[in-house]
Design a protein that fits this description.
With about 325 residues, the protein is α/β, with parallel strands linked by helices. It is about 30% helix and about 15% strand. The strands form three sheets. Strands 8-7-6-9-11-10 form a six-stranded mixed beta sheet, with helices on both faces. Helix 3 (about 90-105) links the parallel strand 6 (about 80-85) and strand 7 (about 110-115). The radius of gyration is 23 Å and the shape is globular. It starts with 6 loop residues before the first helix and ends with a helix. The protein binds guanosine-5'-diphosphate (GDP) and zinc ion. The site of guanosine-5'-diphosphate has 14 residues, from helix 6.
Length: about 325
């Protein structure tokens, strides 16, 4: 999304109508040679523009503010971690694994709980209290009853968002609900992918099988950014549905718990006695154990320790 090389042309008022023009682009050979993939959501420099045929060439890719590969979308501003309060039931360890995986991307997180219409107010308010003690401000919604969808839409405004969460919680339903929100300024029926170009281009991408590997040539899933009414984009493909935690190390785990971040950040002077403190009862550790998810922190630490030891032994 993107936008141009030829700023002088764009700024020229006579071509201001070119702002927002969709161009079908090829990627400059040298970028392919250095294996610089162009992803949906990338900000790129386009040259050799033919305004009549609406074609151009991607000459360079700007540095990305985020780099997630599942789904492959560049410059994601927000991860919407979606769970449901029921069907499937909200489970704190599963939710924690997702939150840790999400935190490890460095992208800001919004936590939303769907299917809120299935439980009574007290259940919602109990979860609200609990999740706030974890350091999150959950939004409750229901795609079925439309409850909370407006607040959700306003949180996502002007940002590029990817939804992550386990299967069955309503990710696809929510994507559809947000894409069809009536205040959308986009003609839904004539929807036109602003990033990857036209439907025509989409059709060009499917099907071809690589003879060498025998697998589909495009093993990555198709992903497009849906323009949201009021600005911003939502990836039409949900992200990871099973956190691997492969990028999380024993040392980094603590920083993905807002509770620990708060304890360490609240008091600049106070530091654990050891620089590499894992906060598991070392002498001089300032992380207290009086919070709900402390046992889950231990459990994840164990899981990661076992994985790291296994990796050491194997390689
Ligand atoms: P995904 O696997 O996360 O993409 O979940 P889906 O969008 O496929 O939804 C899974 C099931 O949950 C479907 O049967 C949906 O109709 C249902 N569902 C989605 N949103 C709601 C909701 O707000 N309330 C209820 N009761 N069911 C919902
Ligand atoms: Zn400590």
């Amino acid at each position: 999304v993107i936008v141009t090389t030829e700023p002088e042309k764009i700024e020229d008022s006579s071509s201001s109508s070119k702002v927002g023009t969709e161009l079908l682009c090829v990627v400059r050979a040298v970028l392919k040679k250095i294996k610089r993939r162009v992803l949906v959501g990338d900000k790129v420099v386009v040259g050799s523009i033919d305004w009549v045929d609406r074609r151009g060439m991607i000459e360079n890719v700007f540095q990305r503010s985020s780099d997630i590969l599942d789904p492959p979308v560049a410059n994601v501003d927000r991860l919407l971690v979606l769970f449901s309060v029921e069907q499937p039931q909200l489970e704190s360890f599963v939710l924690t694994r997702f939150l840790i995986e999400a935190e490890s991307t460095g992208i800001p997180i919004t936590l939303a709980l769907n299917k809120a219409e299935l439980v009574d107010q007290q259940v919602l308010s109990d979860w609200d209290t609990r999740l706030r003690s974890w350091g999150y401000e959950p939004l409750f919604c229901s795609v079925d009853s439309k409850m909370g969808l407006d607040s959700l839409a306003s949180v996502l405004r002007d940002q590029t968002t990817v939804i992550v969460g386990p299967s069955g919680v309503g990710k696809s339903s929510l994507i559809n609900a947000l894409r069809n929100k009536p205040n959308s300024q986009v003609e839904v029926d004539n929807w036109f992918d602003p990033i990857m170009g036209s439907k025509w281009f989409e059709d060009q991408r499917v099907g071809k099988v690589s003879t060498r590997s025998g697998r589909g040539k495009h093993t990555t899933r198709n992903v497009s950014l849906l323009p949201l009414g009021g600005g911003g984009y939502l990836a039409d493909t949900p992200g990871f549905s099973q956190p691997s935690l492969l990028k999380v190390t024993k040392q980094s785990l603590a920083q993905y718990f807002p509770e620990i971040r708060k304890m360490l950040g609240d008091n600049e002077q106070a530091k654990c006695a050891f620089n590499d403190c894992l906060h598991v009862g070392e002498p001089g550790c300032i992380v207290k154990g009086d919070w709900e998810r402390y046992p889950l922190y231990f459990q994840l630490l164990d899981e990661i320790r076992i994985r790291e030891e296994f990796q050491l032994r194997t390689f």
